[in-house]
Specification:
It is a single chain. The protein is of the alpha/beta class. The chain has a single domain, classed as Rossmann fold, CATH 3.40.50. 39% of the residues lie in helices and 18% in strands. Strands 1-2-4-3-5-6-7-8 form an 8-stranded mixed sheet, with helices on both faces. The longest helix has 19 residues, at 242-260. The mean pLDDT is 95.
């Protein structure tokens, strides 16, 4: 089992494929399964790296609360262990905040793709996403906060599969609370001008946890930011609109890769 270390904390990661590295940073409480649809689409032409935040899945879960600086240092440890010198970061919610902060401080970040992310922690109301991994019914019901009703109604098998993955890989209450504590006081509005990497902000138009207006504001404040809204999709829009998202993500990565060669 590949792991990176940040001090005494062991961080589990999985890597697959060749080519330019694409590193995924999960939403609070969710395991690396969250990016399964993107992993399947990108692994091969790209090296895909998926990891569990501290407090989640197969990574260590030291007592919290965690700071954003600590989670960024964890990401840096994973990038270092994987030998990533120029990586494309993809994050959602808390993962988006981690990716933004890493882009400001690290020379290993080439581009950003951010889902359901706001420039302020106070604008990300993530509580409704949490459910205990020991409660199958709560796991299924809490998906209503992250996915649109239309998607859940039309994809009952996917809902059941996600609930099973969550039971195996998501954080418990202590881990989740330790992670979301990192968003307290997070306000990037004064330093977003320092994030000069090309950044694509993608937001579900029906996101009930992070307003699309905040995603649009984030993109507007970034020197090289662009915004795309997926009408009718929820917070986890990269799951329910995976084909559209994967096409756009591949196009964005190909464009950036061609620029650097």
């Amino acid at each position: 089992m590949p792991t990176a270390s940040n001090g005494s904390v062991s961080l589990y990661y999985d890597r697959d494929g060749d080519g330019a590295p694409v590193v995924f940073v999960s939403e609070a409480g969710f395991g690396g399964w969250l990016w399964g649809w993107q992993h399947a689409a990108l692994a091969g032409p790209y090296e895909v790296v998926v990891w569990d935040l501290r407090g989640t899945g197969r990574s260590d879960a030291p007592v919290g609360p965690y700071t954003l600086e600590t989670l960024v240092a964890d990401l840096e440890a994973v990038l270092s262990d994987c030998g990533v010198r120029n990586g494309h970061l993809v994050g959602c919610g808390l993962g988006g905040a981690i990716a933004l902060s890493a882009a400001r401080s690290s020379n290993r970040v080439e581009t950003l793709t951010l889902f359901g992310t706001a420039p302020r922690g106070a604008a990300m109301a993530l509580e409704a996403l949490f459910a205990s991994p020991d409660d199958p019914q709560a796991l299924r019901e809490s998906l209503e906060a992250g996915l649109s009703a239309a998607f859940l109604e039309s994809q009952p098998d996917v809902r059941d599969g996600i609930a099973d993955w969550r039971a195996e890989g998501d954080a418990d209450r202590a881990g989740w609370q330790a992670q979301v504590a990192a968003l307290e006081g997070f306000d990037a509005t004064d330093w977003l001008v320092e994030v000069t990497q090309p950044t694509r902000v993608i937001h579900g138009g029906a996101d009930e946890l992070v307003s699309p207006a905040d995603g649009r504001d984030l993109a507007r404040r970034l020197p090289r930011g662009s915004f795309r809204e997926l009408e009718g999709a929820g917070h986890l829009c990269f799951i329910e609109r995976s084909r559209t998202v994967n096409d756009r993500l591949r196009g964005f990565l190909e464009e950036r890769t061609n620029e650097s060669t």
